[in-house]
Every structure is written in C-alpha cells, then in structure tokens.
Amino acid sequence: MAHExxxxxxxxxxxxxxxxxxxxxMGATFTTEPALERAMDAPGLESxxxxxxxxxxIDSTGLGLVLRVANDLQARGVPLRIVxxxxxxxxxxxxxxxxxxxxxxx
Length: 106
Description:
Layout: E1 6-12, E2 15-24, H1 26-40, E3 47-58, H2 60-76, E4 80-83, H3 87-95
Parallel strand pairs: 2-3, 3-4
Antiparallel strand pairs: 1-2
C-alpha cells in the first residue's frame, strides 16, 4: 500500500520551500501537484526550493511532476533549487539522464 506523500509548503519573504516526503508516484501526484501549483502561484514569488530529502520513492510520474515544476518556474523566470533525495531516489534522476538538467544542490 502506497503512503500518501506530504507536501509541506513554507514561504518567507517571497522564497517558497516545498518539502516532499514519502512516496511520489502516480497516486501521490493527485494531491502533490495541486499543492505545488498553488505554491508556484503565490504572489511575490521570488525563488522556489523543492526539497526531496524526505522522499522514500519516486517513479516516472513523480519525475514528470518535478520536470513540469522546473519548466513552469523557468518560464516565469523564478530561480529553482532542488535538494536531492536519498541515494535511491536520486539514482532515478541519474539513471534517466535528467539529473544534469535540473538545478540540484551538490
């Protein structure tokens, strides 16, 4: 049974942080995507951090969601930084070849 992910969104002076926890799979995107869209629509948004450090699992649907967030923010001119997830989660980004295309913290 998949656990619902938690998307905790905080805002400080135009800097939004969205921390995702649990499993980011197809079922999870139904709740996570609207939360991220609301966060990206925040008035006065100046920067966006996507924190994946508490994710336990991500599948192709979750990868697609991260890419959509990155593309949306880029189109709006809002800087994005991504805090990588644990090794097994980050390996999914690396094995698909998209890790280098996203602004992960090193």
